[in-house]
């Protein structure tokens, strides 16, 4: 009996409940557990671990909080002098509140520079994009069918796309030599690999802007992708939950915008392109569990709407957000201020790391940077990456960062570092700790080199002496 089946048998639980493909033993989640055991606090635990492995956006809470202070009626469910409490408490329709869907599509359009007009009838509400992604895969793939994903990718996808659906992920390998761009040959290679593994490919799944890269996809990349998906007759899913975090050029191009601009191909791919979105990152509200699927495929929308009854957004959350998003003036200001804050934070991280001789991949979006620490590895291997990660997390530095291998990066030595979930002073301290660590590593390396060169010069002296001795010169010493 294999170990999975033995576990099920012993615990009298289902195979699904005991299945290990959830991915919680990844270093990504282990880092969080280590942080929980010893969290940094400026006064109570100043030597604790600083959490830089969490893609959370806490930079614009003051704006949301001041909106709530100004709109007390909303929190008390009061509208036009009456109470909404009963209506909200009793509301059970899994299609969601119409008013909420209306403002959501307008928000989606706003953060995509109004290049796409979204229709509330093509939207499915889900409890976060975790649920949206899983629901989509349930709709698109049978167990054992495959999705192609560019590397590096968000570690949670192993859980969200594979665990309960039984679908498989085949990596599209991307490399730092071209800033991890998705090439035509990488797409073809992944497709061939799936065929070699006897897996039927149902789609390509992209994250744009990318987690962990913090970059947006170029128009060429999106066009290649559309051409590829059309040739293979497969779906494209675009997880765009960081669309509202694009703080620098180039501008964000949604897959829908790219498709609309491909006038000849548009009709062929129209019902095969799907977007996932959420308010977890753009508004910094992961605890509210607001996610959505958007698609032009009516059959898919009908199926996903039925499935959404397993993960609905509570009606009081929908109500609150319909009011916040409905305040267009506030939302415009929020988006602008939020991007400004993110850009400033990114610059702080980049220049702090530069002081320690560490470079970041050039990025323009997201809540993190993809950081190049290849020169700090003892060897060009994933083992050396884990060794460095353990040092940074546990022994020397006390920072929880995510190793590239947890994001299935194809090259060792890259780390994702988040910058929007901690206070500015904590970020400064983190940079100081990195600086001390790199300085002490450099010192150790210099000492090792000096010791090695001293020992090789001793060996040379000895060798010279032996040569002299054997050539007769040494006889004078007898
Ligand atoms: C690319 C990506 N998709 C989905 C999620 C899950 O987000 P949510 O909180 O909306 O479920 C995350 C969270 O980090 C993410 O980075």
TrEMBL record:
The UniProt entry's GO biological process terms, in alphabetical order, are: ethylene biosynthetic process; fruit ripening
Alphabetically, the GO molecular function entries are: 1-aminocyclopropane-1-carboxylate synthase activity; pyridoxal phosphate binding; transaminase activity
| Superkingdom assignment | Eukaryota
UniProt keyword annotations, A-Z: Ethylene biosynthesis, Fruit ripening, Lyase, Pyridoxal phosphate, S-adenosyl-L-methionine
CDD domains (UniProt xref): AAT_like (cd00609)
EC class name: lyase
- For this protein, the Enzyme Commission number is 4.4.1.14
What pathway does the UniProt record associate with this protein?
A: Alkene biosynthesis; ethylene biosynthesis via S-adenosyl-L-methionine; ethylene from S-adenosyl-L-methionine: step 1/2
Please give the cofactor(s) recorded in the UniProt entry for this protein.
Answer: pyridoxal 5'-phosphate
Q: Does the keyword S-adenosyl-L-methionine apply?
A: yes
Which reaction is this enzyme known to catalyze? S-adenosyl-L-methionine = 1-aminocyclopropane-1-carboxylate + S-methyl-5'-thioadenosine + H(+)
Aminotransferase class I/classII large domain residues are: 50-434
- PROSITE patterns hit by this protein: AA_TRANSFER_CLASS_1
What is the recorded name of this protein? Answer: 1-aminocyclopropane-1-carboxylate synthase
Give the organism, scientific name: Nicotiana sylvestris
């Amino acid at each position: 009996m294999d170990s999975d089946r033995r576990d099920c048998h012993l615990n009298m639980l289902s195979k699904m409940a005991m299945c290990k493909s959830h991915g919680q033993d990844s270093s990504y989640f282990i880092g969080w557990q280590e942080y929980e055991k010893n969290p940094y606090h400026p006064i109570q635990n100043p030597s604790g671990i600083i959490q830089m492995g969490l893609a959370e956006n806490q930079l614009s809470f003051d704006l949301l909080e001041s909106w709530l202070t100004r709109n007390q009626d909303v929190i008390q469910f009061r509208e036009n002098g009456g109470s909404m409490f009963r209506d909200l408490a009793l509301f059970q329709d899994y299609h969601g509140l119409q008013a909420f869907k209306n403002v959501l599509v307008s928000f989606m359009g706003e953060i995509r520079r109004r290049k796409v007009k979204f229709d509330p009838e093509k939207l499915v509400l889900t409890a976060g994009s975790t649920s949206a992604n899983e629901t989509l895969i349930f709709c698109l793939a049978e167990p054992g069918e495959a999705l192609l994903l560019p590397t590096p990718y968000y570690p949670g996808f192993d859980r969200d796309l594979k665990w309960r659906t039984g679908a498989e992920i085949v990596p599209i390998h991307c490399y730092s030599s071209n800033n991890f761009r998705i090439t035509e040959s990488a797409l073809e290679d992944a497709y061939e690999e799936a065929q070699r593994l006897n897996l039927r490919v149902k789609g390509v799944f992209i994250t744009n802007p990318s987690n962990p890269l913090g970059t947006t996809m170029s128009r060429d990349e999106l066009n290649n992708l559309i051409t590829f998906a059309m040739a293979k007759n497969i779906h494209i899913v675009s997880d765009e939950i960081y669309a509202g975090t694009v703080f620098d050029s180039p501008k964000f191009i949604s897959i829908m915008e790219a498709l609309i601009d491909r006038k000849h191909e548009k009709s062929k791919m129209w019902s095969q392109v799907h977007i996932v979105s959420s308010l977890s990152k753009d508004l910094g509200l992961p605890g509210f569990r607001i996610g959505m699927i958007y698609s032009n495929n009516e059959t898919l929308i009908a199926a996903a709407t039925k499935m959404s009854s397993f993960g609905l957004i509570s009606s009081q959350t929908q109500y609150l957000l319909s009011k916040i998003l409905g305040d267009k003036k506030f939302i415009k200001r929020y988006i602008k201020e939020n991007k400004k804050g993110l850009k400033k934070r990114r610059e702080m991280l980049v220049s702090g790391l530069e002081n320690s001789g560490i470079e970041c991949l050039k990025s323009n979006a997201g809540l993190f940077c993809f950081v190049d620490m290849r020169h700090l590895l003892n060897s060009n291997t994933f083992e050396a990456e884990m060794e460095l990660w353990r040092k940074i997390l546990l022994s020397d530095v006390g920072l929880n960062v995510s190793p590239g291998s947890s994001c299935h990066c194809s090259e060792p030595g890259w780390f994702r570092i988040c910058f929007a979930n901690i206070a500015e002073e904590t970020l400064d301290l983190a940079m100081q700790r990195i600086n001390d660590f790199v300085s002490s590593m450099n010192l150790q390396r210099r000492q090792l080199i000096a010791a090695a060169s001293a020992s090789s010069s001793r060996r040379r002296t000895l060798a010279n002496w032996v040569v002299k001795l054997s050539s007769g010169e040494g006889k004078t010493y007898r």
